[in-house]
UniProtKB/TrEMBL annotation:
It holds the Pfam family BpsA_C. InterPro entries: BpsA_C (IPR002723), DNA_methylase_N6_adenine_CS (IPR002052), SAM-dependent_MTases_sf (IPR029063). GO terms for molecular function: methyltransferase activity; nucleic acid binding. Keywords: Methyltransferase, Transferase. This is Putative methyltransferase. GO terms for biological process: methylation. It comes from Saccharomonospora amisosensis. SUPFAM superfamilies: S-adenosyl-L-methionine-dependent methyltransferases.
């Protein structure tokens, strides 16, 4: 492996200079802006493809093709790529204000893809997107069909849309970064790109998770979009301090790189932060809990939001306790297994659920009874079709009762009663009750693309696909 990869621009500059004629080390350092030792490492890799004359060096005749292969060249974008990006954006699921979705312009998405391809060797660099409602991954896929791309997102709709448009050539993984990162993507990427919520807490959390995703090498990079109003420079300073506290250094800040439809409070623009992790970089300081759920500017988990009022939580506990059961109240975190004592019912406040939490909590918790408090307008409850889909998806594990407008007109309670496995569905029941296990360990037929993921890490449509494969009724 070339020690300079995945960064491509400086390698391309050096090889271009060597192909032009005799050069000394000083010229190569000056022309590429690489440290002298990095230039020396690159020359060592070129080895016999170089010829030497004293302190000068150049490519041997006939070696240009190998050097070009080593450095790679930026891909020429298809002539219709901008139109394709526009079409993709027109069909993307509607932005969710509760997740601070603001759509980047098609020109910005194309600019991102081309910049990534120019800066990094996407033939081999593993590129991970933390959130991708803007569909930048699709533009990169169009430029580099062989690039290794992963998208991690909380929005199941976006993940399904990406799967459909990419023919599943982009790996899609579900998580809510507020509760952690799937082990399968930790330490898996050379380059991480994210356009986080622009709150101080949101930027800090997404950056910390991005650091966790990176392979620990000097060439790994974390790329962040961030904008703040020139009227409030203190906000920019606070975010930059958060990034520095994570052990990141700013390799570059490219002003007004991103443009948006909306976001007028920050001038409908944001800068591109190119961050290099130092030896002290760590995302482990990202805390989990109620405070860290408040990372957005709007919605039930905005920085101003709180948990459900005490009377609602008491009413939830009373429903969970029906029949005289003891009740344990829990937070929404479904990412780690937690034992439940026999005969104890679990009550979970999911009033901040943007949509995907309910299903994952029901998959993650193994109890005789689970009662979840959700908004009455929760996506899984809004109509008969949505309710039937939820009931069918969780049926191998729980029987559901959907108590609408309970305990008040703005909320609902979903009550899940455990059902025993029958001989007919024992296979799916075994997987559904081990949602924290790697799928390859509990389902030998799991495909290679999901074998290292847990059931709770899959996008919702892929959970439904696993259900159908295990129990094709």
């Amino acid at each position: 492996m070339n020690p300079l990869r995945p960064r491509a621009r400086p390698v391309r500059l050096v090889t271009a200079l060597l192909n032009e004629g005799w050069r000394d080390i000083d010229e190569l350092v000056h022309g590429s802006a690489l440290p002298r030792r990095s230039v020396e490492e690159l020359l060592a890799e070129l080895g016999d493809d170089l010829e030497h004359r004293g302190d000068l060096v150049r490519l041997r005749e006939g070696s240009a093709a190998r050097a070009a292969e080593l450095a790679g060249l930026p891909a020429e974008p298809p002539g219709d790529l901008l139109d394709r990006i526009r079409s993709h954006i027109e069909g993307v699921p509607a932005p969710l204000p509760a997740l601070d979705h603001v759509q980047a312009t098609p020109e910005t998405v194309l600019r991102r893809a081309r910049w990534l391809d120019e800066e990094y060797d996407l033939r081999q660099a593993r590129l991970l997107f933390l959130g991708d409602h803007d569909l930048t991954s699709l533009a990169v896929r169009a430029l580099r069909p062989d690039a290794g791309l992963t998208v991690v997102d909380v929005d199941d709709r976006v993940l399904e849309y990406l799967d459909d448009l990419s023919d599943s050539s982009i790996r899609t993984v579900h998580t809510d970064l507020r509760f952690g990162l799937p082990l399968a993507v930790a330490g898996s990427a050379d380059v991480v790109f994210s356009d986080p919520p622009y709150t101080q807490a949101g930027m800090a959390l997404f950056a910390a998770r991005g650091v966790e995703c990176l392979v620990r090498q000097r060439e790994s990079r974390l790329l962040l979009a961030y904008g703040y109003s020139e009227r409030h420079p203190t906000l920019g300073r606070q975010v930059q301090r958060e990034l520095l506290s994570l052990g990141l250094t700013f390799e570059a800040i490219i002003p007004d790189f991103h443009r948006y439809t909306g976001a007028q409070a920050v001038g409908s623009a944001a800068d591109l932060y190119v961050c290099q992790p130092t030896a002290r970089a760590s995302g482990k300081g990202a805390r989990k809990g109620k405070a860290e759920q408040a990372i957005y500017t709007r919605g039930p988990r905005s920085v101003e939001a709180n948990q459900a009022p005490r009377p609602l939580r008491d009413a939830l506990a009373a429903i969970a306790a029906e029949g005289g059961r003891a009740v344990e109240q829990r937070d929404p975190d479904w990412t780690r297994p937690r034992a439940v004592s026999e005969g104890v019912a679990i009550a979970v406040d999911l009033t901040g659920d943007p949509g995907p939490w309910l299903l994952r909590v029901l998959l993650a918790v193994n109890a005789d009874r689970v009662a979840a408090l959700v908004p009455n307008a929760h996506p899984d409850l809004t109509n008969a079709r949505a309710q039937a889909a939820l009931i069918d998806l969780i049926e191998p594990k729980y029987r559901l009762r959907l108590l609408r407008s309970t305990p008040d007109n703005s909320h609902a309670v979903v009550v899940a009663e455990a059902r025993p496995a029958t001989e007919a569905d024992s296979g799916v029941h075994a997987v559904w009750t081990r949602a924290h296990a790697r799928l390859g360990n509990v389902w030998p037929r799991a495909g290679a693309d999901i074998a290292d993921l847990r059931l709770i890490d899959l996008p919702r449509h892929r959970i439904a696909g696993v259900r159908h494969q295990l129990d094709p009724r």
